[in-house]
């Protein structure tokens, strides 16, 4: 049951790679901008239909269509003009529609307002979808804690916790705040905070950290810090701060828009005033061509070429469990040349597996493993489960174990077949005998040291107080690790591993996962130097890590990606993106999605520029009609937005 609770709390649903999310038309229609655009369109159609019969009423309906569809855009344009003293595309469109009305083209002006409002509503829909998809991931966070007051238990919001509060943390639950164990004992998976690959036993007086996972025992925890800095609390704060962040290309486009708008207005005035004087055009002809130019030259499609694409890509990534803190990071990750992984908690899971079983000469391997597994079968500790799993793999029988008890600081003991077996720390090796094969005590110590150098955890076993052997365990590699590395390599991306572990341990993990570049024995500052060296040698680097010690390297990389479930709050705060479900296989997908987004932006911009130039040339060379200019210009805007929304799938 505990395992099910833990799985429920820490697993995030991830759509399959071939699953497509259908557009939610009901949600789209609930968008206020979409309602205004459709209302404007309905008014336009009615006014157009009754114009031959009720001219005055038709004009009134056209004015209503202008007001309903253009109010929001006009307000935004005026605010930009007043506050920033700058022109934007909103004012250009409103000016063009009003200009069309002044020369009797009410329907064309209303059509311009309608299509412009519709394109804005589609872009707004992409923004809302992005934020909703991100929020659906954050909704998985724990929101309450069990606080004990006056002997009574009360469920309270995590935000209400304060130092001194006493909490009950049940098995399998996330610890909601930093604190000290007041009563109880359990093992805690705290690799997300400390980088330790193995769970740590906690007893009264020991410190525990928010965001870590309680094991099999209930704990009473006294809060020492508020929950404001908790794992998911920091994510929410960062998402709120990052929603306003835009990619560098969009910032350039916004600056370009102001300059371009001034040029368009200037050319429009020249056409109105200059052509009658220089070319002999009539005032009506000059004003008409100026209005067509104002419509077709406006950079609506060009401006809409970037953000809908980036928002759609971020939204689809969020549904697969990758949370970006801004479009700039989605843009940067497309340029990734090297993906650098931390080892513990990133390429490995922190889940141990038995690697070595060594015994003294008078104890067989099967006897030792069967007896130890029979005792450990009553424990839910990860090291115990690893031993039991190994015994099951070898089809060894589980024997009856009596008087099983935990010995604080030493492990666990029990009686099997009348013999007292104890399993615990290596310092429990007393009364050493010659190992099977004739090794001496000194050789035995040398073997233990070698196993430790390989990054293995050693449990010593005694029988009736006499040393009987040992069991060595090692981190379990993530099942997706080898596939993730293979996918990245197939994309032309090099894969590196940066770890503080010894070179021998790192080489074993690298060999099993297929990592080609291995850098071991690294302190946090060494990881930063290595990331910088990789950037100089190869280019853009994506660093993936989970621990506090990875934070400097995450900050030094082009894009830093933190592990959302097992990652520390510090790593997530520093990271530019968060892998919410810890599925590193998705990294190759998100790089591919970012590259698709980059290609889509280029296609959109090329298409938009081509349409603008063609319509401008047609206006002055072939006398493009205003209705055709409206449909061509605003139609191209809608097309580039819809092309960007394809990435929502």
Q: Can you offer a commentary on this structure?
A:
The protein is an alpha+beta fold and 649 residues long. 53% of the residues lie in helices and 18% in strands. It contains 24 helices and 22 strands. It has a 7-stranded mixed β-sheet with strand order 10-22-21-20-11-18-19, sandwiched between helices. A 6-stranded antiparallel β-sheet has the order 2-1-3-9-4-7, with no helix packed on it. The protein has a 6-stranded antiparallel β-sheet with strand order 12-17-16-15-14-13, with helices on both faces. Strand 18, helix 19 (503-513) and strand 19 (517-519) form a beta-alpha-beta unit. Helix 6 packs parallel to helix 12 (307-319), helix 10 packs antiparallel against helix 23 and helix 23 runs antiparallel to helix 24. Mean pLDDT is 78; it is low at 1-23, 192-196, 238-244 and 428-437.
Compile the SSE list and pairings.
Layout lengths: L1 H9 L14 H5 L2 H19 L4 H29 L5 H14 L3 H33 L5 E6 L2 E6 L8 E4 L9 E5 L2 E4 L1 H4 L5 E3 L4 E2 L4 E2 L4 E5 L7 H12 L5 H31 L4 H15 L2 H4 L3 H13 L2 E3 L2 H7 L4 E5 H5 E12 L5 H12 L5 H12 L7 E7 L3 E6 L2 E6 L16 H13 L3 E7 L2 E12 L3 H10 L3 E5 L4 H11 L3 E3 L4 H15 L2 E5 L5 H6 L2 E5 L5 H6 L2 E3 L6 H36 L4 H20 L4
Parallel strand pairs: 11-18, 11-20, 18-19, 20-21, 21-22
Antiparallel strand pairs: 1-2, 1-3, 3-9, 4-7, 4-9, 5-6, 5-8, 10-22, 12-17, 13-14, 14-15, 15-16, 16-17
